[in-house]
């Protein structure tokens, strides 16, 4: 959990540091965004392989390799004095981080019985939600007082300590499994998930009409289709799509994906609003998110215990109702909305999120037989990454297009009311005012779209039922009938 915490924390530490890195390493915005896109791509490629890795290797071995890669990447990035070295360090970090989260979830599913799993997942939710939320605040403070490399130097000693403790304390035995990695499946999976993630991640910046955007998405969709067909035909697939035979898992997966798309509205649009339109400093922008993060961390273990007692349906309905209402509240922002109002709205929204995330995914995973746990966790993590990328691209595109159309309308209206020819200074000021109003309208419109996405997740939540663990599937064809008959006789 400590290893996962610093891995999640590191994912968000870098966002506020990007302008400093651009200036220090003399790179453009289109180049520096690869620190985020590259990280996401490595995750998209590696996470689908984690089901195979968890089945093939021991927890100890996987943890040490994952934590070792993360530590090496962190050290390399911390001493980077040119961009390629920083990018290499970041992608090595991502290769370790991609293994850690599915591994931790699988360990918890195996370690705790169904009736205590909600509490365990609640503690896990504390890490999942708290680490990324405090990232911007911590990053803002470090950037104001130190060089951006300190972000990596700060994480390095913790990563080394966790690696050493894991080396001496982690012990587990496992029967050796005769499994081979399907390299054609790995290639198809990498092209599929990687292409879709890259295409949607680039769409907000390059536009949907860019061949680089729609080309990679088309290649990704075709590769993914071939990958799924290939996996369904294999006896021991790399990623088992038969997890979708279980209705509660399918429902939880759909709700999580829809919710991830809606969530990125807050993570993406709010910093643009507070920093670009309101001129709030990065440090204060980070502090705005802190009460919500603290509320999430307090509520996560509580909702975990509630899940064990009352199940996921009531929690999901209440939580998603809160998320839908507060997201609508964000669609009503003005240029004079108070800082206190923003903190309050974001904190209530965080409360809603903490009631949904872990209970919904835990309820879905509870229905799977033990042998499908690695596939269920890998599938959830991969599809949430894809949903996040799609949500980001969709909301950025909506905001950009709405801002452009509103700028024309507001600008034309302002020109009509001019009684005399304005001075260059007055014209520049008017242009700035028009752009601010247009961007505000674009942000509000994107939040409104996110409200409808959240409402869709709320509608799906009404179909949740308390999941019971399914029996292990019996592999084979003619042989399986004999086995079933024998079991029935016994």
Automatic annotation (TrEMBL):
Residues 1-469 form the Major facilitator superfamily (MFS) profile domain. It is a multi-pass membrane protein. Its main location: membrane. Keywords: Cell membrane, Membrane, Transmembrane, Transmembrane helix, Transport. Belongs to the major facilitator superfamily. EmrB family. Gene3D superfamilies: MFS general substrate transporter like domains, Multidrug resistance protein D. The chain crosses the membrane at residues 32-55, 62-88, 94-114, 121-143, 149-169, 181-201, 213-229, 249-273, 285-302, 314-331, 382-400, 445-464. This is DHA2 family efflux MFS transporter permease subunit. It comes from the Bacteria. It comes from Bacillus salipaludis. Pfam families: MFS_1. GO terms for molecular function: transmembrane transporter activity. GO terms for cellular component: plasma membrane. It is found in: Cell membrane.
């Amino acid at each position: 959990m400590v290893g996962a915490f610093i891995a999640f924390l590191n994912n968000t530490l870098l966002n506020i540091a990007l302008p400093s890195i651009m200036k220090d390493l003399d790179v453009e915005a289109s180049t520096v965004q690869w620190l985020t896109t590259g990280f996401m791509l490595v995750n998209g490629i590696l996470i689908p392989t984690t089901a195979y890795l968890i089945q093939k290797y021991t927890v100890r071995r996987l943890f040490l390799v994952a934590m070792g890669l993360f530590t090496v990447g962190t050290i390399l990035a911390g001493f980077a004095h040119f961009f390629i070295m920083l990018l290499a360090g970041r992608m090595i970090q991502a290769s370790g981080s991609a293994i850690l989260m599915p591994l931790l979830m699988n360990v918890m599913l195996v370690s705790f019985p169904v009736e205590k799993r909600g509490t365990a997942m609640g503690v896990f939710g504390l890490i999942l939600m708290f680490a990324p939320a405090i990232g911007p605040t911590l990053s803002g403070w470090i950037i104001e007082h130190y060089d951006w490399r300190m972000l990596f130097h700060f994480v390095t000693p913790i990563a080394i300590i966790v690696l050493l403790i894991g080396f001496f304390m982690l012990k587990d035995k496992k029967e050796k499994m005769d499994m081979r990695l399907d390299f054609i499946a790995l290639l198809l999976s990498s092209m599929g998930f990687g292409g879709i993630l890259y295409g949607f991640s680039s769409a907000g910046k390059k536009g949907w009409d860019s061949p680089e955007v729609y080309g990679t998405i088309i290649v990704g969709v075709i590769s993914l289709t071939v990958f799924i067909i290939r996996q369904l035909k294999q006896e021991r697939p790399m990623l088992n799509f038969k997890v979708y035979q279980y209705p509660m898992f399918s429902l939880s997966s759909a709700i999580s994906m829809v919710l991830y798309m809606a969530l990125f509205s807050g993570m993406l649009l709010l910093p643009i609003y507070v920093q670009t339109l309101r001129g709030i400093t990065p440090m204060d922008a980070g502090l705005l998110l802190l009460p919500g993060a603290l509320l999430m961390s307090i509520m996560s273990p509580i909702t975990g215990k509630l899940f064990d007692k009352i199940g996921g349906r009531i929690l999901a309905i209440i939580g998603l109702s809160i998320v839908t209402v507060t997201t609508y509240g964000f669609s009503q922002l003005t240029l004079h909305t108070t800082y206190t109002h923003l903190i309050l709205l974001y904190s209530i929204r965080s409360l809603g999120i903490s009631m949904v995330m872990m209970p919904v995914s835990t309820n879905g995973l509870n229905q799977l037989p033990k042998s499908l746990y690695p596939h269920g966790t890998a599938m959830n993590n991969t599809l949430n990454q894809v949903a996040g990328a799609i949500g980001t691209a969709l909301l950025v595109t909506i905001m950009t297009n709405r801002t452009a159309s509103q700028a024309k309308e507001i600008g034309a209206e302002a020109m009509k009311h001019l009684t005399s020819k304005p001075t260059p200074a007055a014209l520049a000021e008017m242009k700035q005012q028009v752009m601010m109003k247009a961007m505000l309208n674009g942000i509000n419109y994107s939040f409104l779209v996110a409200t409808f996405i959240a409402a869709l997740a709320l509608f799906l939540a009404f179909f949740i039922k308390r999941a019971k663990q399914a029996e292990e599937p019996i592999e084979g064809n003619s042989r399986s009938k004999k086995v079933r008959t024998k079991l029935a006789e016994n």
